[in-house]
Give the backbone structure.
Amino acid sequence: MIDLHFHLLPEIDDGPGDWQEAVELACAASRCGVELVVATPHVSPVYPNRAAGIAQALAELQRHLRSEERAAVEVVGGGEVAASVVAELGEAELQALTLGGSRWVLLEPPTAPGGGFALRSAVSRLRSLGLRCVIAHPERSGTLAREPRLVSELAAAGALFSVTAGSLVGRFGSAARRFALQLAGEGLMHNVASDAHDLDRRPPGIAAELKASGFGHLIGWLAEAVPAAIIADEPIPPRPAGPGPARRRRLLRFRRAG
């Protein structure tokens, strides 16, 4: 599997606190079946990271991982770019923050309501530069939750939506789970990533959460085919056919339980 959204670089945001913790986090991802991680530290007003610093931290982490036979995971660079800072960043900087050197930017939407203008502006600017958007954890965005028209607008503009695996099993509350399932039901869950930060509060994990929430049949698409296409700048493969009747019944029971 490929984990497209992962806070693995230490000491630069709210991810691991040191190099050893980062190595242990990478090992945990490997045990969960992840073979490729995109390290996506925050690029935001709170964590004003830039591509050069991220690249330096990535090179250091790769050096540490090469010395650890347990960490059978490849790591490439990227960033989780807050919509509010896109206007401040130059074209070369934004390109350097893309997912694995592709044309796709992982865009963090506003969490509070009322951020529609900032999100629209960010997506518009990225498109004007020939870049495309993967919207991070849309199910946890108050802006998107309260503006369903904006969700449709972004989808029509070619944005993809990357749901956090933990949201599907209620780790971020019932509202986030309901919205995640709504996006899935409307065909707007294009990727599932861990958004891992640490081993305890925000650990790695994708497949177990997808299976528990009734989407196990889509692991190959959500966590392998789609992220691989994003990193390679290839067309997004079509979503496979839906689950059989038994799986649909389990999914309906899960939704009612929420």
Notes: The chain has a mean pLDDT of 93. The beta strands are 2-6, 36-39, 42-43, 74-77, 80-82, 104-108, 132-136, 160-164, 191-193.
